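== Folding the chain ==

***
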Amino acid sequence: MTTDRAAEGRLAGKTALITGSDSGIGQATAIEFAREGADLVVHYLHDDQGASHTKAQVEAAGRRAIVVQADVSDEDQVARLFDEAVTEFGSLDILMNSAGVDASGTPVAELSTAVWDRAIRTNLYGYFFCARRFIQLRLADGAPGKIINVSSVHADNPNAGGSDYDCSKGAVRMLTRTLALELAAHHINVNSLAPGMVLTPFNQAAIDDPELLAEQVQSIPWKRAAQPAEIAKLAVFLASSDADYVTGASYVMDGGLMINLGQGA
């Protein structure tokens, strides 16, 4: 049975596909979307238990969910992911591209083509494959839609050893802006989130080591990392009708990190 909160939420009657919703920002957003009334396609690559937990939380909020495994770097698997979503729900209203791989920590001179390809194919090609299929669905339906791409502060702020990740996220920002121009006439909004440090599996070492975490947050004016649910709440806004006039934007959520990097220069 649908809960009263779900029925009255900002995403009531909508269906969303969130890639990488087995953990981290994707999982937190799936839960927030459900609390706001959306049904969910929960996607994962390896963590079936995490995906099952997300599904259970969505259902606890009174919404429907299916779980689909796929490698978003593979065009054929993305096609299957969307086919299963459409078979279950008829169509999709919201796409959030969240699945990704972290920086390898390898200098360019030592970076293998395989490691480079893994980041670019997952973090960029995966977003492209999913966005293209989602757009095709919305155009066929003649209906508006919302695309949210998870980028990073590293779209602008490079890390030594992070060329694979940094370049992929910089490209995501430009993909977002290009799509926003292409799709404005169809009322399909395209925006990106650019988080700083978030307590997700990408930062598991800091989660497990309080001293390391305390050291890493020193350059953040807020003096802490974000919780995934904080990013998710902004995603809810971008997925809702409240953001109908917002497109092509990149929202930095970093506790002031990016405006603090020039201090002491």
Observations:
- Strands lie at 15-18, 39-44, 65-69, 94-97, 145-150, 188-195, 250-253.
- The first helix runs from residue 4 to 8.
- The chain has one domain: 4-260.
- The chain has ten helices and seven strands.
